[in-house]
Design goal:
Layout lengths: L5 H11 L8 H7 L4 E4 L6 H10 L3 E5 L6 H14 L3 E4 L6 H12 L5 E9 L7 H4 L8 H17 L5 E9 L2 E11 L3 E8 L8 E5 L2 E5 L8 E7 L6 E8 L20
Parallel strand pairs: 1-2, 2-3, 4-7
Antiparallel strand pairs: 4-8, 5-6, 6-7, 8-9, 9-10, 10-11
Helix pairs in contact: 2-3, 3-4
Length: about 260
Amino acid sequence: VSSRSAGKAAAFAALHGIPQSFGSFREMANDGDFDIMYVGTLHQFHREHAQAALEAGKHVLVEKPFTTTLDDALALTELAEKKGLFITEGLWTRYFPAVEHALHMVRGGSLGEVKQVEADFCFNAADGDAGVLLDKELAGGANFYVSIYSLGYTTAVFGTEPEKILATGHVMEGVDLNNVVVLQYAEAKTGIAISGMQVESAEEVRISGTRGRITIHTPSHCATSATFCLKLEGRGNVEYEHKKNYSKASNVRVTNPQRVVSVPS
């Protein structure tokens, strides 16, 4: 572990049983006896610290947002490729069983052709220390803090680049307080991502296809439950609907198992 203060790094290491501590990130990158580094510093330092790790021959896990500019992101990925190292954004959401199962059903065709994804993640910055969140110099704002989750669902489901992006929001002193992004894809597919720091939203995700839908329940950025609904022809005609809690065992009764790619017990 590293810190700008060697004393604080040593204290943290001692508390958590970490064998090594360093007084700077670059010192850790150059001297640390390990293979991979996690960059969890403030947003504006992600490029600098991730680059230092790559230059030292370390694989890198970068906390979201990956970087604050496209140029920085491209520079890091190009450097990692050149050095034969692995680098990725630390977006844990996709690795939760509820999300993995939802994406498995999407890709397996259980929902038919998915046409729409709606995702929201809004919280009230006033509930905590809003200083960093609203500081332009520290790369604050809803876009960098929570939009990644809402947009991440759309990109995970559709898996391609949108043909058109529409966005609106409210900005105060250079920091976005909220934003709504509409992503238009080929074949009349649409993603809607809502993010903000003024109110606490339901934080749910709805994935809708021609033969069914999935609702990933709050908190969708670290989801533990989802409802799967497969429909028959005609509005409101449901063939199968089940809410699965991934934090405990659940029994599922399926009337037509050919429609369901995988339902974990």
